[in-house]
Structures are given as C-alpha cells and as structure tokens.
C-alpha cells in the first residue's frame, strides 16, 4: 500500500515491511530454502525440543516473545485470577470470624460491609488496585486479615511490574525501529577503484540517527570439508570496505557498502557465468543503538545469487540543493550498466592486463584462453630470437 501511494519507492525493500518480493528476472534454478528473508526474518524452525521447561526459567522473555493475543490474555487472566484468589481468602476470613451473619452494632468484623462472596471480590479489587471507595475497610480485629492485606499488596506490585514491563517491552521492541532501515533490493558487482567489488546500498528513513552502527556480511552456502563432512549452512564472514574505513558507518545519508573481492573472499573464483549457478546467499546485518530510546536494534536482509547484478552500479541519490544536501529515495535501488569484465577476480589477478585492455567489453572464458595462448606464443618467440655476440 505504501509503495502504491508513492510514500515508499518500489526500488528498495524495508527490512520488515514487505514479505512478498517480486521474483527476479533471471532465475537459474530453484533454491531449496532461504536462510534469511528479504524482510530480515530467519527461516529456521525449532523442532523436537525435549526440554520445554527451559522457557519457563526465563518467564519475562517468554512473555515478551509471545504473540500479542496470548500476551493480552495472560495480562487479563493474571489480574482476574489474583482478584478471585484473594476474594476467596477475604470471604473465608469473614466466614471464619462470623462476619457474614452478624448484624449487631457492637460486633467488630474483620472487614466491614462484607456479607457475600461478591462483596469480598469487590474488596479484593479495591485493595489490589488501591481504589478505596470507602464503603469497605479492614479493622484491627483480625491479624489474619492484616497479613492478607500485606500479601495482596506485594503480589499486586509484582504482577504490575511484570505485566506492565512486558507490555512496554513489546511496544518498544528494537525491530520496530528497523522498519525504517532499508536495503537495496539487489546487490551489484562492478569495478570500483580498479578492483572487482560486491556492493549494496543501505539507508535510514528517519531523522533520528542510529548510533555506533555497524554492518556485517556473511556468505551462507553448503560446503563439504576435506574429511567429507557436509555443512548445510556454512557461515563465512567477508570483509567490507565502506566510506569511513571500518565496519562502523555514519548513516546520515544512504551509503554504498562495498566488499573487495580478493583472495580472502568466498566470491574470488566466481565469474559472471558461474554466479547464477551458485547456491549461495549473502546475509547483511546492520546493528546499532537507537538515538531516542538507547535500545540496540538490528536489521537484516539477504541476497541470493539471482539477486546479484553483475556489471552494474548504483546511481547517485545525494545532491546539493540550496546550501544543503538532498536525498532522492526514488532512485535508491536504481542501477546502471557499466563496463565490467565477466571473468572472476582470480582471473583478473592472474592477468592484470585484462582489466585495462578489455574493460569496455565483457570477457568470456574463450577470450581468456585466447589471450593466455597469445601471450605464451609471444614469450616463446622472444626466447627463440637469435642473439648477436660481438667480439673485441
């Protein structure tokens, strides 16, 4: 709806706003499952948990993790059950003391004006929520009534602290702030500063900043160890190179986060033709402290192989207008084609002349073989040239 009303452009995906993402144009093969969805939710189901009691050891976190419907039901039932329980206790105290059948003016009851269970229940509500209508009051006649009054006040304070704290934490959860942290729908691979780089764009729609924001990237893929062990979700950290030189970012305007594809990169041996046949997923994690609340928030997204565009780069979105910088979010996810070799970064490192000579046209594997063959022939010709020896 927001994209339809042009409030949020369709070229980027808010981290937790849209689950239904349009399918990419290029689709090499169907992937079994996605580890992290575009909106940041993790596609992992916890099954066959034997020790369910561990969740009860951390009741507060369990209550916060519940859905709103269950939380509101527990919130309501906790108060109703406590009122009913202490209402029954007040009725029993009055029944044991004989307050229910006494009409004498000289008789001093434990609690005045309690004649039925309904009146005892109303008195329980007045005590716990400190309403105090004035019609019912405790006397000093019964020590048990005084003890019950103290216990109910303590129990009411504990219930208030837990339930109101739970409601506050659910309304102020960190992922709510992540709604306005956005990532580009696609990532790109192109030449930047004479290096082959993997790039994506990240931005913040709010004016309030994310303090100490850091970005991490991982490649998740199925691998097999040398011993034959199959790791279905092998998480490989990849280094980044962003405008401030470290993982921390100053997210005032949209930034292009880049990763130089070098020998340490898991993308080092992947070419343009191999990319869409690779079963990999690049997970991006943005984490920082919300300026207004001080709560740590985290936004996540991921890019499958078919969501990585080879030979394209992002268009500029920041411009200077009337003495200040303006950001055009309608171009946030727009890309343009640029001259980029289609070979892998490994082949570029082996023959650096490929980047200079063939930058304006894509390189194929046949071009690489032909160029290496020509280079070896020229080298052999130089070795076979006759050498002239001059004698004195």
Q: How would you describe the oligomerization state of the chains in this entry?
A: single chain
Question: Given the helix and strand composition, which structural class is it?
Answer: alpha+beta
User: Helix content range of the residues, please?
Assistant: 25-40%
Low confidence ranges: 1-8, 12-28, 357-366, 379-392
Rg measurement, Å: 34 Å
Q: What is the end-to-end distance?
A: 92 Å
Strand content: 15-25%
The secondary-structure element order is EHHHHHEEEEEEEHEEEEEEEHHH
Work out the helix count: 9
User: How many strands, which pairing sense, and closed or not: the largest β-sheet?
Assistant: 6 strands, mixed
Average pLDDT score: 78
What is the β-strand count?
A: 15
Q: Shape, please?
A: elongated
Describe this structure in words.
This protein has about 400 residues and is α+β, with helices and mostly antiparallel strands. It contains nine helices and 15 strands. Strands 1, 2, 3, 4, 8 and 11 form a six-stranded mixed beta sheet that branches. Strands 5, 6, 7, 9 and 10 form a five-stranded antiparallel beta sheet that branches. A hairpin with a 2-residue loop joins strand 3 and strand 4. Helix 1 packs across helix 4 (about 145-170) and helix 2 crosses helix 3. Residues about 1-10, about 10-30, about 355-365 and about 380-390 have low confidence and may be disordered.
Strand-helix topology:
Elements (H helix, E strand, L loop, with lengths): L11 E3 L44 H7 L2 H30 L19 H12 L14 H29 L2 H4 L3 E4 L2 E6 L2 E10 L5 E15 L5 E9 L9 E2 L5 E6 L11 H4 L4 E11 L5 E9 L3 E3 L1 E3 L3 E4 L2 E4 L7 E3 L7 H6 L2 H5 L7 H20 L8
Parallel strand pairs: 3-11
Antiparallel strand pairs: 1-2, 2-4, 3-4, 4-8, 5-6, 5-7, 5-9, 9-10, 12-15, 13-14
Helix pairs in contact: 1-4, 2-3, 2-4
């Amino acid at each position: 709806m927001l994209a339809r009303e042009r409030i949020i452009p369709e070229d980027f995906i808010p981290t937790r706003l849209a689950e239904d993402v349009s399918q990419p144009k290029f689709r090499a093969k169907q992937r079994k499952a996605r580890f992290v969805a575009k909106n940041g939710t993790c596609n992992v189901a916890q099954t066959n948990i034997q020790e369910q009691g561990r969740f009860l050891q951390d009741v507060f976190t369990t209550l916060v993790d519940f859905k709103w419907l269950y939380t509101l039901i527990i919130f309501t039932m906790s108060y109703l059950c406590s009122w009913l329980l202490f209402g029954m206790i007040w009725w029993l105290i009055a029944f044991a003391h004989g307050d229910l059948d006494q009409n004498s003016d000289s008789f001093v009851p434990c609690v005045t004006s309690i004649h039925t269970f309904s009146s005892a229940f109303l008195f329980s509500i007045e005590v716990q929520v400190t309403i105090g209508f004035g019609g019912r009051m405790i006397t000093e006649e019964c020590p048990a009534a005084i003890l019950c009054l103290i216990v109910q006040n303590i129990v009411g304070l504990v219930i208030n602290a837990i339930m109101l704290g739970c409601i506050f934490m659910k309304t102020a959860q960190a992922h709510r702030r992540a709604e306005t942290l956005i990532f580009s729908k696609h990532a790109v691979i192109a030449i930047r500063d004479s290096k082959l780089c993997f790039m994506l764009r990240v931005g913040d729609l709010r004016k309030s900043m994310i303090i100490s924001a850091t970005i991490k990237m991982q490649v998740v893929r199925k691998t097999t160890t040398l011993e034959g062990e199959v790791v279905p979700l092998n998480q490989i950290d990849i280094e980044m190179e962003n405008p401030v030189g470290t993982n921390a970012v100053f997210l005032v305007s949209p930034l292009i986060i880049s990763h130089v594809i070098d020998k340490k990169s898991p993308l080092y041996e992947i070419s343009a033709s191999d990319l869409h046949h690779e079963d990999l997923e690049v997970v991006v994690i943005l984490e920082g402290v919300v300026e207004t609340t001080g709560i740590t928030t985290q936004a996540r997204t991921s890019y499958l192989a078919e969501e990585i565009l080879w030979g394209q780069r992002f268009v500029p979105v920041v411009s200077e207008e009337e003495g200040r910088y303006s950001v055009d979010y309608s171009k946030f996810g727009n890309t343009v084609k640029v001259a980029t070799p289609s070979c892998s970064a490994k082949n570029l490192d082996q023959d650096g002349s490929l980047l200079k000579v063939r930058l304006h046209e894509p390189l194929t594997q046949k071009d690489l073989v032909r160029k290496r063959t020509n280079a070896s022939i020229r080298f052999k010709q130089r070795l076979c040239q006759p050498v002239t020896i001059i004698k004195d």
